[in-house]
Amino acid sequence: MAAREVEEEVKHDGRAESAETLSSLERTQNVNVMMAETIVETPPLIVPARAVKLRKEGCPGCRLDEINETRTGIPYLNFFYIWVVGLCSTLPIQSLFPYLYFMIRDLKVAKQEQDIGFYAGFVGATYFLARTFSSVPWGMFADKYGRKPCIVISILSVIIFNTLFGLSTTYWMAIVTRGLLGLLCGILGPIKAYASEVCRKEHQALGISLVTSSRAMAFVIGPAIGGFLSQPAKKYPNIFTEESIFGKFPYFLPCFAISVLAAVACVACIWLPETLHMHHDDNVQDTNEMETQVVDSSIEDRKAKEHGSRRVVSTKGLLKNSHLMLAITLYSVFSLYDTAYHEIFSLWAVSSRKYRGLSFTSQDVGIVLVISGLGIFVNQVVFYPLLAKYVRLMKQIQFAAVVSIFLLAAYPYMANLYGMDLKIVINIASLLKNIFAATITTACNILQNTAVTQEQRGVANGISVTLMSLFKAVGPAVAGILFSWAQKNVTGLFLPGDQILFLLLNVVSVIGLLLSFMRFSGCRVK
Question: DSSP states of 57-117 as a string?
Fold first, then answer.
C-alpha cells in the first residue's frame, strides 16, 4: 500500500510539473506573439529631417553643401567669380551715362538741344523695360535648370548686343539693341540667389554685399570706360584716326572693351559651382538611404509628393508673403529713385550753364562717377559687413533715405560754384549719395533672400527684378522728359526749373521712406 501511494504521488507530481511546463510554454508563446505584433506594428525608424540632411548622389547643390559644412571659412574664390560676373553684367548700364547725351546729339534725332534729354531717357529706359518681361521667366529657368546656365547665357548676351549697340548708326538701332540686351541678360535675380547659396549662412551678408560691390566697381570702371574711350578719334587723334572704325563709330570702343571683359567673365564661369539642388531625377540614388537602410521607400515617396505639393503651393503664395512684398516694394521704389537720379545727373552735369547745368565734359562726369564707385566699393567690402551686424536692416534704409533727401536738395545750388570748389563739392555729394543708395539696395536684397526658401529664391528674385525693372524703365523715361521740361522752364515759375526737377526726384525718396515704416499684416521686419 505504501509503495502504491508513493507511485501515485510521483505520477501526480509528474502531471503537475507537466501542467506547469505546458502553462509556462503557453505564456512564453503568448509573450512571443505579443512581441511579434509589437514589432510588426512599430514603424521603421525614420531619421528626422532636422537631424540628418538627405544627400542626393550627383546633385551639385548637395555636393556644395557638403563642402561648405567642412570648410567654415569664406569661399574667396567663389566670391571672386561672382564679383567678376556681376561686374561685367552691370558695365553696359553704367558706361552709358557719360556719353549718352553726346550720342543722342550725334544721332541727330533731337531737333533742338533741349530735346536731347527727352530722347536720352528712352534709350536708358529700353533696357529696363525689356528686363521687366524677362525677369520672372529667367527666375523660373534658374530654379529649374540651375543658376549657372542662366549666368552664362546672360554674359553671352552682353558680348553680342553690347557690341552691336556701339555700332548703332540710328536712334532706333540703339533702342532695339539695348532692348535685346535687357531681354536676354537675366542675371540680376539669379546672381543674388547664387551669392546667398554658394556660402555658409554666416557669410550670406558678405556674399550679397559683394554683388552690390561689383556694381559699385561697375560705377568705377563703367564711367571711366565710357568717359575716356568714347569719341577716341577726337580725344586721342595720334592713336585713332577719323577713317578708322573707331572714328566712324565714336561710341564703339567703350562697348567693345566691355565685351572683351565679358568674354573673360564667360570663361571664368567654367569654375562656377552650381548651387541648385536637383532632386527631380528619379534615377538619382540617395546615399544616406544606402548608409542607414532605415527609411521606408513608400514613406519617402509620400514625403516627396508632399514636398512637391508644398513647393507648388508656396510658389503660388509668394505674392502673399508680406515680408517679401515689403522688401520688393522698397527695392522697386528706391530703384526708380536711383535710376532717375543717375539719368538726371549725367544730363544735368554736361548741359550748358545757360540751362543751369555744370558744362562738364564726358571725362569730367566719368571722373565723378569713378570716385563715387570707389567709395561704394570700399564701403561694401569693408564697412557694410560690420554695419549689418549691429544695425537693423530697416534702420539702415531709413537713415540712408533721410540723408539722401537733404543731399539731393542741395544739388541745384551747386550750379553757382566754379572751378575746384565745384569739383570738390560735387564729388563729395555724389560719393555720399551713391554710398547710401548702395546701402539701401544691399539691405533690400538681404530682406528678400531671407524671406523665402532656397527653392523659391529664383522666382522670388525674378518677381523682384520684374517690378524693379518696371520702375527702372519708368525712371529714365520720366527723368528725361522732366529734364527736358526743366531746361525749357529755367525761369518764369515759382521756382527755377532745376530746383523743381530735384524736388520731384526727392518725392520718390520720401515715398520709400514712408513705406519703410509700414508693417504689412503678419510682417515684422528687423
Answer: TT-HHHHHHHHHHH--S--HHHHHHHHHHHHHHHHHHHTTHHHHHHHHHHTT--SSGGGHH
